[in-house]
Amino acid sequence: MGQSGSHLFLNYGTRARWNEIFPAIPLTQSESAVDIGVIFREQVQRERPLDAVAAISASDEWSVHHIQSGGVSFDLILARSTPAGLSCGWTKVHGGWTAWVAERTTLLELRRALSATPSMDDADIMRAAIECWGFGAIKHTDSVWAGMIWREHEQELCFFRDRIGMVPTFYSRESSQNSEFGVFSTSVALIQHLYPKSRDINLNRLRKFLLNKSDCRRDDFFEEISRLHPGESWHWRPYKQPPRIERYWHFNNESQRFDDREQLADVLLSRLKNIVGDYFEAKYFPLTLVSGGVDSTLLLSLQIEQQQRLGLGDNRVDAATMGFPSFPTVDESYWVNHLQEHIGHSVATVNVEDKWPMRDPEVFTRYPELGPSFHPGEDYETTFIHRALKEDSSRSVFWGVGADQLFVVNENRILKSLLNSSDVSFDVRLTKAHRRFGTKRIASHLLGRTSAAKPLRILRDKSDSFFGRQANPWHNPERWVSFEATGTVNPSNSNIRDVKPEQSFLSRHLWELVIRGFRRKSLYLGRSHHLPYLRADFVKVVLGRKPHSLHKSATLQKSLLRDIARNYVPESIRLRPKGGVFSKFVESGVGGREYTRIEALFSGESALADNQLIEPKVFLDTFAAYRSFCWSHQGKRQTAAEMILWRTIAGELWCRRVS
Predict the structure, then answer these.
(1) Residue 539's domain spans which residues?
(2) Coil, helix or strand for 300?
(3) CB within 10 Å: which end of the chain, N or C, has fewer?
């Protein structure tokens, strides 16, 4: 597990109030952190190494390499240890150097493209690929790869994030009278150690988090820090600011056409088999996390098939599911038992009922440099993985996450896609839409595109308020979150353009926050996490299709994925409506066992209130309504859906930790 944090990971101050409610804990650093960073400056500015860099050089956990090339000075910083499922390193190349964080399947793909011999190690492979293709080497891979390339002849440093964003990447710079330093890094904590100004909270970004806004801006939770979006490369040249931004990969650029849905399903199944097979060929030993849904069960079934096809024995794959015996609407053991019988492979059940949300609130303040934890399941998910691993250091963690994000699309997008499709006449499109959605739904959609839509929505909202038909108050953060803008303009972001929501990978699914959750688990457990459904060659086929072509069923979500799963999972699972909602277990902790602890956070001094971000009394009233709902609906299937409410609790814990 984790060990005491070194000087590199910031020891944020805490309030007395925090220590009265929760015991203080040290900030932990994983035994297997995987981070890279580079500080760059024009060589004429360099009089001596930064004191912070000198301190990092003395650390046992980080290595620092001082490089001078083409009139530019670099301090390249790398973690000394790496989880088994990842490759992290650097090497000199002809006319420059390169550094990387990548899945081992990335190295496998490059080996194939180079026809490399087995004797070549990771550094040899990366050197050969960059010298052969430059940054174009990334076109020969589909797996996770983030890193940097310096080419002295071009006088350009290229820093890039992987296509789906599994490796968060950041940029910052600091200017003074005599010099200007820039830094690219996969670690916010590293930037904060180098530049103290980057420790100030970005209140505008935090407010958007509290309001549940899908924020596609580049600013992060701290001032002076910008984040790269998935599939982007940033290019820095001496004496030129800011960096030039390019999108080297977009998730919606697949040009391959398919004659029918059955052909598309066959192509996706074939690609998924190849992806699973590649992980085995790259010598992964998966721990696959299974629920009773079609996503994870299909993944495990394919892993078992590929394990047998490759003759790898029976111990290559471990599988586990969470057990909630006291919560029948949450427990998935019934469906997992069906799967075990179908594929002939055991799935361990790990009971995590002792880890209800907010039992250990300090869990939600680990690695505060990543921002507040948006998911109340942080504790029980991490505990589940730790118990399932059983101290087996060889295994990496595999998730079915990604299938929902790719295959579940709301009705508005499906209807819009169908009506706007250009492959058939409008009459045919309208007939198909009417058959699926009915007259009332189509009329509502078409009316919503007219100038009358806005005043009608206002009238509807006023009517709902007058007749008491409002949604649950905890679903509306505008009730307690301030709208007034605060904070300063971020100098590091002032000349860097933002992206439109539709250009940001899975922005509708708050993907950046999901990635931060994986990052916390990876740092704490020292294990790499992998999402086979989100390898680039699979993603671009799915997202390259029109939404209505992926969703033929009017009753079952993810109908295309269910077609792919035919013959691989039991029919009871394949045709099961989407489930796996853990809200009842969350309600037992947040709205039941720990409600007094949560009320204590906001009844006295509140860090969010001190920063004029919330009205504590309004929040407490709203929380009381949520708690009342939880108590009156115990044992019932209806859930409170508290994810938006949770953000304020997590924001308060995080703000106290860093302020």
Answers:
(1) 261-407+526-574
(2) helix
(3) N
